C-alpha cells in the first residue's frame, strides 16, 4: 500500500509539474506576442533567409535542384538551432539575474515546471518561425515544400527531434553562463562556426574531410540534412557526403544529443538555483543599475 501511495504521489507531482509548466508557458507566449521588439527579431531572421534564397543562384552540383532550395533547408535548420541554443540560454541567464531561479528554489517542483514552460515557449516560437519561413519562401521565391505524406512526416519528426536535441542543451548552457552581457558573445561565435561548417548554407562536401567529421559530431549538421531530406527531391541526395539522406543516422545522433541535454539540464538548473541567494541577486541588480543596464 505504501508503494502504491508513493507511486501515485510521484505521478500526481509529475502531473502538477506539467500543468504548471504549460500554464506558465502560455503566459510567457502571450507576453512574447505582445512584445514587438522580440517579435521583430524572429521576423528579421525570416527576412534574412528569404533574401538569401532570392540572392543565391545556380544548381546543386550533379543535380537539377536549385542551390537556393538547399540554402533554404539549411537555414531553416539553423533557425531551429539558434532559437534553442542561443535565444533560450540568453533568456534563462537574464531571468536568473533577476532572481527567478531564487524564487523557483522555494517552489515545490519549480525547476521542472520552469523547464517545461520555457521548452514550450521555445518550441512554439521555433515551429511558428519554421512554418512562416517555408510558407513565405514558397509564395515569394517558389521555395520547396515537402512532397507527399512521407515528406511531411520527415519534416515533422526531424523538427521535433531536432528541438528535443537543442532545447534541453540550451537550458543546460543557460544554467552555467555568467551573465546576459557575456552570454551572447560566448554562444554566438561557436554557433556561427557551426553554421559555416555544417553544410547549412552550402554543400558540406565542398569542405575538407576533417571539417566534415567535426561537424558530424554536432546536431546542426544532422538537422540540416534531415530537413533537406524532407524538402528536396530525392535526386538531391547525391550531394550528401554518403550519397544518401542517412535518416537513421539523423535520428540516432539527434536522439543522443536529446538524452545528453535532458541529463544535464535539470541538475544544472537545480545547482544554479541552490547557488542563488537574495544578497547575490541584489548585488547583481545593483551592479547592473550602476552600469546603466537597468534603471536604478
Structural descriptors:
296 residues, mainly alpha, disordered N terminus, single chain, 11 helices
Q: Could you give a short description of this structure?
A:
It holds the Pfam family ABC2_membrane_3. The chain is mainly alpha-helical and 296 residues long.
Tell me the helix content: over 70%
Low-confidence stretches: 1-8
Oligomer: single chain
- The global form is globular
Helix/strand order = HHHHHHHHHHH
Total discrete domains: 1
Radius of gyration: 21 Å
Strand residues, percent: under 5%
Indicate the structural class: mainly alpha
Number of strands: 0
Q: Span from first to last CA? A: 57 Å
Q: What integer is the average pLDDT? A: 81
**Biggest sheet, in brief?**
none
Number of helices: 11
Protein name: ABC-2 type transport system permease protein
Membrane topology: Multi-pass membrane protein
Keywords: Antibiotic resistance, Membrane, Transmembrane, Transmembrane helix
Transmembrane segments: 39-58, 70-93, 114-140, 152-177, 184-204, 249-269
